[in-house]
Amino acid sequence: MSKKIVHISDQARQAKYRQIINSILESVQRGSLKRGDKLPSINDIAHEFSLSRDTVMLAFSELKARGVVAAMPGIGYYIESTNVNVDQKIFLLFDEFNAFKETLYNSFIHALPDTAQVDLYFHHFNHRVFQSLIRDHASRYTSFVILPGNLTSIGHILKELPADKVYLIDQLTPELGTSYPAVYQDFEDDIYQCLLSGLSLLLKYNHFVLAYPGGKEPIGFVDGFVRFCNDHQLSREVISSFDNRDVKPGEVYILPNDLDLVQVIKNAHRNRLRIGEDFGIISINDVPLKEVIAGGVTTISTDFKKMGESIAKMVTEFGRGRVRNPSSMIVRSTL
């Protein structure tokens, strides 16, 4: 039975495991193998072609990662999908979905070849969900692109995945070190450098307020903000929210959370203060809506489109480097 499905030639230049893969894919394309059809066992193929079990296992593992083959206890390996045109099946794990993550996602998808398939999952900053998603899908994909957010103590979970198939994006934690290739933000230095680029505009204000709610927001925002204000001898304050607080003339507000942005704008209208003249606003993370509200909101933002393109290139070319994604201040009328 094995020889009817698997064809191996000692004269072929292809590795034996690759010949097994191509034989099964060709059988699916011809219609000889259909969804649900059982495959010869690893032992049968190894015995008939005098191969090691590891060679056959390597072939089946790749077919399994591509979603063509699956395994079930008591049954063995069988055809899971007849879509053999997919040569990269990518597990994409986000923390949450919002407007700028949508930009990242769309950019990533558009930069991939047509032969790649992406399945998107969310961990919602929940350690248990993160662990479950990783463990449930560890053998089903050719690549794992993971945005851990602010989750800690995840290094041992990621070690359950093949190290050469894992890529990290956006926010990195110290525990992961340089273990995995990544496209990342340096939140502390990015906010520092972006504020520095707008220093001449910022100097018309006398007090700087960062609304930092904690939780999912990177602590690098606080560190970079404090360092910038200290280096330039600027009056500063870090608050957790705008509850029971009024906007004041002469202040500039740096807002990672868009709910605070709405609250500040409403507060300004209520107190008849002019945004960009009486006080300033800088919002974190740019989206198209911020180009038009309040006459255009000044933002500090990484380039999420570039991030998506960079991680797609890294995955398709099996890159192993670490790339810092560019950030900039986009000056509009609120500053």
Short summary:
The protein is an alpha/beta fold.
Description of the structure:
- GO terms for molecular function: DNA binding; DNA-binding transcription factor activity.
- Keywords: DNA-binding, Transcription, Transcription regulation.
- It comes from Breznakibacter xylanolyticus.
- This is Substrate-binding family protein.
- With 335 residues, this protein is of the alpha/beta class.
- The protein has 3 domains: 2-79, Winged helix-like DNA-binding domain superfamily/Winged helix DNA-binding domain (Arc Repressor Mutant, subunit A); 88-185 and 304-326, Rossmann fold; 187-302, Rossmann fold, CATH 3.40.50.2300.
- The protein contains 12 helices and 14 strands.
- The protein has a 6-stranded parallel β-sheet, sandwiched between helices. A 6-stranded mixed β-sheet has the order 9-8-10-11-12-14, sandwiched between helices.
- Strand 5, helix 7 (155-158) and strand 6 (166-170) form a beta-alpha-beta unit.
- Helix 2 packs across helix 4, helix 3 crosses helix 4 (53-65) and helix 8 packs parallel to helix 10 (220-231).
- The chain is elongated and about 80 Å long.
- The model has no long low-confidence stretch (mean pLDDT 91).
Which labels suit this protein?
WH_DNA-bd_sf, 6-stranded parallel β-sheet, 3 domains, single chain, Rossmann fold, Peripla_BP_I, Arc Repressor Mutant, subunit A, 12 helices, 6-stranded mixed β-sheet, elongated, transcription regulation, DNA binding, DNA-binding, alpha/beta, 335 residues, 19% strand
